[in-house]
Write a structure and sequence with these properties.
heterodimer; A: about 250 residues; Rossmann fold; 6-stranded mixed β-sheet; 9 helices; 12 strands; B: about 325 residues; mainly alpha; ABC transporter involved in vitamin B12 uptake, BtuC
């Protein structure tokens, strides 16, 4: 089932076109990995998919409704956003941060009730960080904060979760933890779209890869797109994809 | 301690401060006597003794005015700190105080009556913020937070220069002292009538802040995150700016420019109830009212002459703020 679809999309700001002709279906239970060099516009694509900035042409559809025709609250019930885990200015507790994910389900003048807190707690338990609920969200590790933000997206109960470099600046253990979490979300029939600078993560979690490069946009199943040629072109260095004896795919210099 | 308990204690503090402040002055009345008179009046009893006259005609209007001004400035400060995602923002970040100052000072220069001066102060504040918002929109099409703040600084500086010009033009024996006193903030000339006209406007401005308390808190996560969580950021921001401007301009019009309250009280409240705006707002309102009643009582009773309120809030607020920073850096700064 296609939850979200980019249709002949051009993205950018004002008159500056960053990329055009983007067609991208986001399927329930699928994980899409977005690769591209620094500054190419991965975040711009995400913001367009989330309805934070308007497309320059083409459209984004949620269950065949044009995104621009929907209000922000309706969009938020369908797509959740997991930003990079920076500390906020205000030291909210982890539970308070997660329960903010319930905003899209609240009336304009309402504050979260017992039910919303229960949903937030369930999301924390799901990610195995329930014991952090009362901790100050600015005083936990980067990996824990990333998990808390994913918990917030779960509390938002959206079918599509967009993650902006969820493994950036995490240590190896936390990176693996986040990747495993992403895989378990797709097992629950959620759709995850993530950007990363590590092509190998695509082999680990993704079933679809999207590449945003200077010469255009390309998407397809992991094994079709993640070839030595394509990756070399993308990162402008000679790269080779190799299988290790255990069957794992690794990317290294040619 | 639970938030409800803390808010209840703050309410008790506000009542206690009100009762004590109403008894302090040249004609001293003990707190139990004040309480008895208040309760009696509350239940319809009318007794026109000296005690009642002093309390209801002289002390209480001023105490009420101080409470309203303090509550309004603290609420506007808390809302702006959430809106601008910066705990060091105060209600006059968009130039409302300087604009109100320019309006009022011009009124004094023209020799207008007190009510007209207040009206000019109120309008001056509103117009200044309007100009700031229009400039920010013209520059960025939307009202980016940074552009808003920069436009506020520029227009505030212009209004400040205009105030200086008015001071030069003013009659140094008659008008200049009045202008200076107004710019330092004071509740000395407050009338029952001023309190009665200000209350509805302040309530009108506080209502949207109270109703939208949860969404305003979400706004503190930043524009993109708040929108992705389902908040209509541009509309909410416009509502907060209008509401905060309305309450600030209406109280500045009767009290003059009183600094520090809107910056510092939300910080004290944050230490008590945490950063969540839906808890911070009521705590700031109660604490702001109690704080300014206490400081204003000091202003009118500590010395032979009336100390300008703005001077006292700065003298108390500055060191207190440094102390708060030193002892709670982790909880107050990013």
């Amino acid at each position: 089932m296609t939850l979200l679809r980019a249709h002949d999309l051009s993205i950018g700001y004002g008159r500056t076109v960053i990329a055009r002709g983007i067609d991208l279906p986001i399927e329930a239970g699928g994980v899409t990995c977005l690769l591209g060099p620094n500054g190419i516009g991965k975040t711009t694509l995400f913001k367009t998919l989330l309805g934070l900035i308007p497309p320059l042409s083409g459209r984004v559809e949620i269950e065949s409704n044009d995104l621009t025709s929907l209000d922000q609250q309706t969009v938020a019930r369908h797509i959740a956003y997991v930003p990079q885990a920076q500390a906020t200015e205000f030291s909210y507790s982890v539970l308070d941060l997660v329960v903010m994910g319930r905003t899209a389900h609240l009336g304009a003048f309402a504050a979260p009730g017992a039910n919303d807190y229960a949903i937030a707690m369930t999301a924390l338990e799901r990610l195995g960080i329930a014991e952090l609920a009362d901790r100050d969200s600015t005083r936990i590790s980067g990996g824990q904060r990333q998990l808390a933000l994913i918990a917030r997206a779960l509390a938002q109960q959206a079918r599509v979760i967009v993650m902006d470099e969820p493994t950036a600046s995490l240590d190896l253990g936390n990176r693996i933890l986040v990747l495993e979490t992403i895989r378990s979300l797709s097992a629950d029939n959620l759709a995850v779209v993530l950007s990363t600078h590590e092509p190998e993560h695509a082999f680990v979690v993704a079933d679809r890869v999207a590449i945003l490069a200077a010469n255009g946009f390309l998407t397809g199943p992991v094994e079709n797109v993640m070839t030595s040629d394509e990756l070399s072109r993308l990162y402008r260095v000679g790269l080779v994809v190799e299988k290790t004896p255990s069957g794992r795919s690794v990317v290294g210099p040619a | 301690m639970r938030t409800a308990t803390i808010l209840f204690l703050l309410l008790a503090l506000l009542i206690a401060v009100t009762v004590i402040a109403s008894g302090i002055g040249p004609y001293a009345i003990s707190p139990p006597e004040v309480a008895r008179a208040l309760v009696q009046r509350l239940f319809g009893g009318t007794n026109n003794g000296t005690v009642e006259t002093v309390i209801f005609n002289i002390r209480l209007p001023r105490v009420a005015a101080a409470g309203i001004v303090g509550a309004a400035l603290a609420a506007a400060g808390a809302a702006y700190q959430s809106l601008f995602r910066n705990p060091l923002v105060s209600p006059d970040i968009l130039g409302v105080s300087t604009g109100a100052g320019l309006g009022a000072v011009t009124g004094i220069l023209l020799g207008l009556p007190v009510t007209a001066i207040q009206l000019m102060g109120f309008t001056g504040g509103l117009i200044t913020v309007l100009i700031v918002v229009v400039i920010a929109r013209a520059l960025r099409g939307g009202g980016d937070v940074l552009v808003l703040v920069l436009a506020g600084i520029v227009i505030g500086a212009l209004a400040g220069a205009a105030i200086s010009l008015v001071k030069v033009l003013a009659d140094p024996y008659d008008q200049l002292p009045a202008i200076t006193f107004w710019l330092l903030g004071s509740l000395a000339g407050i009338k029952v009538h001023d309190v009665a006209t200000t209350i509805p406007i302040v309530l009108l401005g506080l209502a949207p802040l109270i109703l939208l308390r949860w969404r305003i808190g979400v706004l503190s996560l930043g524009d993109d995150e708040a929108r992705a969580l389902g908040v209509n950021v541009s509309r909410l921001r416009a509502i907060v700016i209008v509401a905060a401007t309305l309450v600030t301009a209406s109280v500045v019009a009767i009290s003059g420019v009183i600094g520090w309250v809107g910056l510092m009280v939300p910080h004290m409240a944050r230490l008590l109830v945490g950063p969540r705006f839906d808890r911070l707002l009521p705590a700031s309102i109660l604490l702001g009212a109690a704080f300014l009643i206490a400081v204003d009582t000091l202003a009118r009773s500590a010395a032979r002459i009336e100390i300008p309120l703005g001077v006292l809030t700065a003298v108390i607020g500055g060191p207190l703020f440094v102390w708060l920073l030193a002892h709670n850096r982790r909880r107050m700064l990013p």
